[in-house]
Write a structure and sequence with these properties.
About 50% of the residues are buried. The N terminus is likely disordered. The protein is mainly alpha-helical and about 425 residues long. About 80% of the residues lie in helices and about 0% in strands. The protein has a single domain, classed as MFS general substrate transporter like domains (Growth Hormone, Chain: A), CATH 1.20.1250.
Length: about 425
């Protein structure tokens, strides 16, 4: 495989770019919930407010055409990384204050909006900086380093937060230090990309940036999306395929942290960091790699139903944990590993379908619209999960999640995929 020598090897920017894409998402959507739990917030409030943090990813399609037209993708990447770094510093500064929730939540929203814009630019830059035959090959690399960000954020840094909680006896101070580390990591990414991110010729300024042209292009991109074949089946698939999994994602860590008297497993912050930043991410990555290889061998259509079962059936491990309350960390880790492996394997079909459905002239904008609807599904699932868990209790809540797999299977039955799509490509 030959690389564009003038732009350097993709290995020089894909790993860092997708580490930078993953880190703020992890901070906002995963670490924030753990932090708020340790600072004393209720499960209902955590699910409600962190659910709202999905909003920027939901509505990002409305400004994705502006990212397509105004400035270059590289410019958007670098500027958003600077703003995200400032936002992370703001979270760190606000945690020890008396108005910690209001201030930290405001900064999390700033990070979320900037991160959603950064996602649009990264995905567009990826498709512009690599020729089509290389895009499939390197998708495994970008996914891997996105997962590395997850390991670093909800693994290593959460473990470190737990350690500092014990050694300092000050939970707020410990989490403030963690977000200063987040800040340092992200500003390092900003400096690196400022100087070393390639400048592909295809990532050029639009010839016409007048308001009228931008609005017309926005309208054309948006309208053309809803004229695609099977649009309503695709939208149902995008929002329903992960309906059950999204609720486990929202409540799983809180279930692990809650004490036994309220139905949780009573794990420490450090144990949750090891579990979700190490065990879970490792098996999630393994499932994703095998899922990619499977689609590369037989195509998306062949694996669509097996992957739907893979993302759905392992939810039963949480039913077991909530009914029998094992105190053996290895048993708990095994259950989470099984569930996350199934998630990784099954989620591959979902992401490849988004690429399939986004094909066409406005593929950057259409992919952004797809991920916006994906985020809407996550937002709805997360916001209802807290109230459902409080109402049902953990055992019945996880049984409800099992019932939600019906929506996954209906969604898969409704869509159509061209035979052989994805075959012979490497979706690692």
């Amino acid at each position: 495989m030959k690389e564009n020598k003038s732009q350097g090897s993709p290995w020089g920017w894909i790993p860092s770019l997708y580490f930078a894409e993953g880190l703020p998402y992890v901070a906002v959507m995963m670490v924030a919930g753990i932090m708020y739990k340790r600072l004393g917030m209720s499960n209902e409030d955590i699910a409600l407010y962190t659910g709202w943090l999905n909003l920027p990813w939901v509505i990002k399609p409305f400004w994705s055409p502006f990212v397509d037209i105004i400035k270059t993708k590289r410019w958007w990447i670098v500027v958003m990384e600077l703003i995200i770094g400032v936002g992370l510093a703001g979270v760190a500064f606000s945690i020890p204050t008396h108005f910690w929730f209001q201030a930290s939540f405001a900064f999390f929203f700033l990070i979320a909006f900037s991160s959603a814009t950064h996602d649009i630019a990264c995905d567009g830059f990826y498709m512009l900086a690599l020729p089509p035959h290389n895009q499939a090959t390197y998708i495994g690399i970008r996914n891997t380093f996105y997962r590395v960000a997850m390991i670093s954020g909800q693994g290593g840094l959460v473990v470190l937060a737990g350690y500092w909680e014990h050694t300092t006896g000050n939970i707020a101070f410990s989490w403030s230090l963690i977000f200063y580390i987040f800040t340092a990591l992200f500003l390092a990414m900003f400096v690196y990309h400022k100087f070393f991110l390639p400048k592909p010729a295809s990532d050029a300024l639009s010839e016409n940036t007048s308001p009228a042209y931008i609005i017309s292009q926005f309208g054309e991109a948006f309208v053309s999306y809803f004229k695609k074949k099977q649009i309503w089946a695709a939208l149902f698939f995008i929002m329903a395929y992960r309906f059950g999994e999204a609720q486990i994602t929202a409540m799983g860590k809180l279930f692990m942290l809650d004490p036994a008297k309220v139905g949780g497993l009573g794990l420490t912050t450090e144990q949750v960091g090891i579990l979700y930043g190490g065990v879970a991410v490792g098996f999630l990555l393994l499932g994703g790699i095998l899922g990619g290889l499977a689609i590369a061998r037989n195509g998306l259509k062949f694996w669509l139903w097996p992957m739907a079962f893979a993302i759905s059936l392992p939810h039963i491990t949480y039913v077991y944990l909530s009914l029998f309350y094992p105190d053996n960390f290895w048993i708990i880790s095994t259950c989470v590993a099984i569930e996350q492996f199934g998630y990784g394997f099954g989620f591959t079909a979902f992401m490849v379908y988004l690429m399939y459905f986004s094909e066409g002239h406005y593929k950057t904008s259409h992919y952004a619209i797809c991920t916006g609807f994906m985020a809407l599904g996550m937002m709805v699932s997360t916001m209802i999960a807290g109230k459902l868990q409080a109402w049902l209790g953990y055992p019945h809540f996880f049984l409800w999640v099992i019932l939600c797999t019906v929506f996954t299977f209906i969604a898969v039955a409704l869509i159509k995929v061209d035979a052989g799509y994805g075959k012979k490509q490497v979706y690692l």
